[in-house]
Write a structure and sequence with these properties.
The protein is mainly alpha-helical. It is built from five helices and no strands.
């Protein structure tokens, strides 16, 4: 991977890992439960753990790809890159929905801010990461 892709991948990894770890502590531990119950997600007790571990896992994966990804085979690295970035998009679509849902008060959202600026920013960063990755790969084949 080129340095630009590694940088954006590392930033995404950091942006997923730190909030994921924060969700294991109060008040974020309670907030994630409120998010899930507020939007009517089934099995909120179990799902809050899936959310936390998913964010931490994807964060670690993206950081690994940023720092050690070149040690992997190209095929595996590309699959993990696509999986990580696509998973972030899915998570952020749910976050946008959560921010916009009328039953979720601003007090339990990150920075107590209702407009989904952070999740939308993450999605745009993933799109940029895919663009960089694709343009770098196309240059290698020419």
């Amino acid at each position: 991977m080129k340095k630009s892709v590694k940088t954006v991948t590392g930033i995404l990894g950091f942006f997923m890992l730190i909030p994921g770890l924060a969700k294991f502590t109060e008040p974020f531990k309670t907030y994630i439960y409120y998010h899930l119950t507020g939007i009517g997600f089934p099995f909120a007790d179990q799902m809050q753990h899936v959310v936390k571990f998913s964010e931490v896992g994807i964060g670690i994966l993206m950081l690994y790809l940023a720092f050690k990804g070149n040690k992997l085979s190209t095929s595996l690295r590309n699959k993990l890159f696509n999986f990580g970035n696509q998973t972030i998009v899915i998570m952020m679509i749910v976050a946008v929905y959560t921010h916009l849902h009328p039953n979720v008060p601003a007090e339990v959202l990150p920075m107590e801010f209702k407009p989904p600026i952070m999740p939308t920013g993450y999605i745009l960063l993933v799109v940029y990461n895919f663009y960089l990755f694709r343009s770098n790969n196309e240059k290698q084949w020419k």
